[in-house]
Amino acid sequence: MLDFVNTVHEVRTGVGEHLPGPPDLALWARRAGVVGEVEHRAIAARIQAEPIRARAAYRQALGLRSAITRLLTGGEDQSDLALIDRWRRRSAARQALRRTDAGLGLKWTGRPDLDLVGARVVEAFIELAASEDARLISQCAGPRCGWLYLDRSPTRRRRWCSMQDCGNRAKVRSFRARVKGS
After folding, report:
1. What is the pTM of this model?
2. Domain locations in the chain?
3. Rounded to a whole number, what is the distance in angstroms from the first to the last CA of the chain?
């Protein structure tokens, strides 16, 4: 679910969209494991068959991403909670309790579409927000990043989304500043 928030290059500003259209959202969902291959193919077919509806669902999913981002970074208001709750209720109306190989579970009863992606993101968000892991959510200190991650470091003092990316850039900036100052 944090991967969905991090589909923007700069989370703090919302600049740098990594999902420029409905097909990109569907592909992200497949790669992130939000939907399976069969569901992905069905969603891609729906996007092709109903491009106007897919574009509207895509815009709604990006609105959901913004609301989740604000909730996880402390900038939320009641409208963000209401939006996520609407997604939850709408999703619940399209699911039914069914027996599965693993026991009982919820099964999507409608045709797979981008709403299924949003529904699964909302489920993951609620599960994370209600878990002990919620206190581990941190935001990258990179000035042009802000990606969210779970800080499972022993001291909980991790500062960067990854040392290979933002952490390395920060170390290079620090080194250059020290050399320039000498």
Report:
1. 0.88
2. 2-137
3. 45
